[in-house]
Write a structure and sequence with these properties.
6 helices; 8-stranded mixed β-sheet; alpha+beta; single chain; 16 strands; binds 2-oxoglutaric acid; 4-stranded antiparallel β-sheet; Jelly Rolls; 304 residues
Length: 304
């Protein structure tokens, strides 16, 4: 059991989540009104929505600026599919010193420059400073990256997954690595936790301002999800801030190179596809013209 999660429960009124089937306690806690500890309210989502532009389907991501990226932006799409959510990426320090790179399934290099220094997002700084003071108080590693997600309505969701450990610092004996989800916006949303066999461990609406805190290791023993809402249920804007301690830093110029490489391999794939379509079309045309030559012949024969 994590001493850090114990400290969170003791100092901040958190309650540990138990496994439904075995009643084993997990290193996951629900903390009431975490956002209030940082002298902010869930309305921070509205502030961010009002202030920062959204890069939609046809928009370019502008490096080193705070911006929302829409789920229909080519850089955020997952294997060509629109994602039903929008995101802002922030990190500790200038990206010129490297990007704190959080690896997740389907991440594209093209979206990495959407991340920028959280010092450029003034309305967010009380949350960052408060959260890192909280980490110090409970024996956790400080966060160096935050992802803000907006779910505009009940159709927006994130499917069941665990955060991949590849680029997240592991917990140390005296410093837990936490993944902290703080709910923001005017509306609460259901949050599901599953065991790795897919059985529900916990399913509850997390109210705006409350937080779900888990160690990296507890995250790996479970899956979490923000499901779509039931038919007919009206649900307004909701969002989350997820803090992580990222261990992988990718140099600024390396990200540029990776983007150039993936663009050129995409261009090569497009050219290959076009060539093969052209070849198919010219074969089809040739076959058609051979057929029509035949039919002309037969017509000729019939008319003669
Ligand atoms: O928005 C949430 O509540 C969860 C977000 C999440 O699971 C993720 O970003 O990996």
């Amino acid at each position: 059991m994590s001493a850090c999660i114990d400290a969170i429960c003791a100092k901040y009124g958190g309650s540990r989540i138990a496994c439904r089937s075995s009643s084993d306690q997990l290193d996951i806690a629900l903390v009431p009104n975490m956002i209030g500890l940082f002298n902010k309210t869930p309305a921070v989502l509205d502030e961010l929505v009002e202030k920062y532009p959204i890069r939609g389907a046809k928009d370019e991501i502008i490096p080193e600026t705070v911006q929302w990226v829409g789920g229909d932006n080519a850089a955020l799409k997952y294997r060509g599919h629109t994602l039903k959510r929008e995101k802002i990426w922030l990190q500790n320090g200038s990206v010129r010193n490297g990007y704190a790179y959080y690896y997740y399934t389907g991440v594209q290099w093209a979206v990495v420059p959407a991340q920028t220094d959280w010092a450029q997002c003034q309305e967010f700084m009380p949350v960052v400073n408060g959260y890192n003071a909280f980490c110090e108080a409970v024996g956790a590693q400080k966060a160096n990256q935050a992802i803000i997600t907006r779910y505009r309505d009940g159709d927006h969701f994130i499917g069941a997954h665990f955060d991949k450990p590849k680029s997240i610092a592991p917990s140390a004996p005296d410093a837990a690595s936490l993944i902290t989800v703080i709910k923001i916006g005017p509306t609460g949303r259901r949050f599901n936790l599953y065991d790795l066999n897919g059985s529900v461990i916990w399913s509850q609406i997390i109210e705006p301002g409350d937080a779900l805190v888990m160690t990296l290791e507890a995250n790996l023993q479970t899956k979490h999800e923000v499901p779509t809402c039931a038919d007919g249920e009206t649900v307004g804007d909701s969002g989350s801030i997820v803090f992580r301690s990222i261990s992988s830093v990718v140099p600024y110029n390396m990200v540029k190179k990776k983007i150039a490489m993936s663009e050129s391999s995409r261009a090569r794939a497009r050219a290959r596809k076009m060539n093969s379509n052209n070849l198919k079309n010219s074969k089809r045309k040739k076959a058609d013209s051979d057929d029509s030559d035949d039919s002309d012949d037969s017509d000729d024969r019939q008319s003669s």
